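All the exercises in this workshop are built on plain-text protein records. A record pairs a protein's sequence with a compact description of its fold. Backbone structure tokens are a discrete shorthand for how the chain folds in space. Once this layout is familiar, the rest of the handout is easier to follow. As an example, a complete record with its sequence and its structure tokens follows.
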Amino acid sequence: MKIAIIVRRLDVKGGTQRQALSLASELVRRGHSVKLYAFFYSKERCYPDLLKHLSVTALPEEASRPSKHSWLNKMPLLRYFRTLLVIRHETRSAKALAFLIDPDVDILNPHDRVAHRVAYFFKKYIKAVPSVWNTNDTHSMRCVVD
């Protein structure tokens, strides 16, 4: 079976990353073809020991990072607009990553916030592929102002 595991960040160490990489390793061990897809990727900063035998496709660095708008952080209302810009950028990134996924994949497995949007955009064009979403964080549209 060809499996696409989608993770937002593979450039940090965390529970989501460890869980997705451990699952990928186990699926490969059982004979499945697994490819990871990520918005951000750094083999050195993530789990190099878990990544060493896995295939990863990531967005180019300049496409995955939203542009800096420091002036948007100065006032609470402007921070709200910054949040909207980040959401818009994440949506564009999700669309871009969806087009990088091999079209003859058998199953999609998004693993965290924003990764489920990649599956959504992929399934707009190839509807018959099932998607199993592993989420570890609760979702909130609340804008935190510090």
The first strand starts at residue 2 and ends at 10. The domain at 2-63+93-125 is CATH 3.40.50.80 (Rossmann fold).
